[in-house]
Design goal:
CATH superfamily of the largest domain: Nucleotide-binding domain of ferredoxin-NADP reductase (FNR) module
Order of helices and strands: EEEEEEEHEEHEEHHEHHE
Structural class: alpha/beta
Shape: globular
Radius of gyration: 19 Å
Number of domains: 2
Distance between the termini: 10 Å
Strand content: 25-35%
CATH class of the largest domain: Alpha Beta
CATH topology of the largest domain: Rossmann fold
Oligomer: single chain
Length: about 280
């Protein structure tokens, strides 16, 4: 489904409650966790879904409104008014041909908002990352960059709301450097809340070199865990959830194709997982 296919109605007014830069000190990127409060409106959403943010455009190229989706980064809050948490990376783009820099309209708009500011949202959208009813089920969670957002919510839901989880929960998180890791740094290390859980383990995939264009070393991250991960994939009680930018799909297909010792074998295995509802991707 293309972004332009998502509806921009109905619209809701939300007020910024809190905004915080959650990147490590010294990082050259800015990623903000923004908590929004809706004004006395019912707004039901589930873990893994997204909201749309509407920003008034300049009218260039016929665009009077810029619409972008952001994944919800926390579980639904029980309060007088609904609260929604999103994670936003400030984005600027360099045109490959002209070298001209373009500002990411929605991301810069959101990163510039301060408590009390109002924004317009839509949604929720998308298939949620549902938690299996069987507490013995295994979960393999694979995220890239701000793709960590839904897994922050999902892991919290599993261990704080459901509890007594028996299956394995493995979080594989990719970033270009340690400074780009979200919720796993000195400023915010939310996943430490679950390190004492016997069933939870998180591991990181970083670029082997500091250049932003270098690929994430997914293979290095799982080389000592490849057997465990493949056994999880072979287990009919395992669910795989993937979130992040579209290149993560090709990187994982390459990685799992090598683990399966054949691209064709992996393609068949992945197709079966998707058909069974045990492989769900949230890519953008």
């Amino acid at each position: 489904m293309r972004l332009e296919d998502y509806p921009t109605e109905p619209r809701y007014t939300a007020r910024v409650l809190r905004t915080e830069d959650i990147t490590e000190d010294g990082s050259d990127t800015e990623v903000r966790e923004i908590v929004l409060e809706l004004e006395k409106q019912k707004f039901d959403f589930e873990v893994g879904q997204s909201i749309g943010v509407l920003v008034k455009g300049s009218g260039d190229f016929g665009r009077s409104v810029h619409h972008r989706l952001y994944t919800v980064a926390d579980t639904p809050m029980t309060s007088a008014n609904p609260e929604v948490t999103i994670v936003v990376r400030r984005c600027n783009y360099i045109d490959d041909y002209s070298g001209e820099e373009f500002i990411g309209v929605n991301s810069n708009y959101l990163c510039d908002r301060r408590p009390g500011d109002e924004i317009t949202i839509t949604g929720p959208f998308g298939m949620p990352f549902t938690v299996p009813t069987d507490k013995n089920a295994n979960l393999l969670l694979i995220g890239l960059g701000t793709g960590i957002a839904p897994f922050r919510a999902l892991v919290k839901h599993i261990y704080r709301d459901i509890g007594n989880w028996k299956g394995k929960v493995r979080l594989l998180y990719g970033a270009h450097s340690g400074l780009e890791l979200l919720y796993m740094n000195n400023k915010r290390d939310d996943f430490t809340n679950y390190y004492d859980e016997e069933t939870f383990e998180a591991f990181k995939a970083l670029s082997p070199r500091p250049n932003w264009a270098d690929p994430i070393a997914w293979d290095f991250a799982i080389e000592d865990r490849a057997d465990e991960i493949w056994k999880m994939l072979e287990d009919e009680h395992t669910y795989v959830y993937v979130a992040g930018q579209r290149p993560i799909r090709d990187a994982l297909d390459k990685l799992f194709g090598e683990m399966a010792e054949s691209d064709a074998v992996w393609a068949k295995k992945k197709a079966d997982l998707i058909e069974q509802g045990r492989w769900v991707e949230l890519v953008y």
